[in-house]
Amino acid sequence: MRRSERVGSLIGAVGGLLFVLVNAGGLPGGVAWAARVLGVAAFVAVVILVVLRRGGTVAEDPPSRRQIRTYGISVTVMVLAIIAGARVLDASGRAELVVVWVVLCVGAHFLPFARAFAVPVFARLGLVLIGLAVVGVVVALTTASAVAPAATAVLAGLALLAAALSPGLRRR
User: Fold this and answer.
1) Measured between alpha carbons, how far is 27 from 68 in angstroms, rounded to an integer?
2) Per-residue pLDDT, 172
3) Closest CA to 27 of 166, 109, 161, 147
4) Which residue has better confidence, 56 or 157?
5) Phi–psi pair at 2, nearest 5 degrees
6) Closest to 150 in 3D by CA, of 15, 30, 20
């Protein structure tokens, strides 16, 4: 397994677990606890099957300048977009949709990675998160569901955890 897979999986797993734990409280009681347990179990699985997994680490070239630049720009744009969007949503009285906006921004930030690093899972993950955000905002706006934003974020967290776990499952 490549070192970059281990590091990327750990970053994705931490982000996924945070999405789940921070937002599960917005779900009904039993569902919230099930989401938390599933999130923690998936995180532990990533640590065991990907991060700590025995076996040689495949040598790989360090990221190119172009890849580092793409990464830096993508993360910077994501952070700025989250801040700006949160301010707009809050000012317009739709603060409950901030978490859905965050899911959209996180998903979009993965799309340039797929091309720059030639890793298709980034495109699939980005599109899944963007799709969840779109569905989440539509459900929240059309049903006035107070649960939709939290559910969107928890599902996004589980998607991040699943993507982080995929290198460990692929090798089994």
Assistant:
1) 38
2) 47
3) 147
4) 157
5) -80, 150
6) 20
Distance CA 65, CA 68 (A): 5
For residues 44 and 146, what is the distance between their CA atoms, to the nearest angstrom? 30
pLDDT digits (tens, 9 = 90+) for 4-27: 788 889 999 999 999 999 999 999
Sign for the pseudo-dihedral over CA of 87, 92, 98, 104: negative
Local confidence band at 141 (pLDDT 50, 70, 90 cut-offs): very high
DSSP 144: -
Residue 5, both tokens: 């897979």
pTM of the model: 0.92
Packing angle between helix 148-170 and helix 98-117, nearest 10 degrees? 30
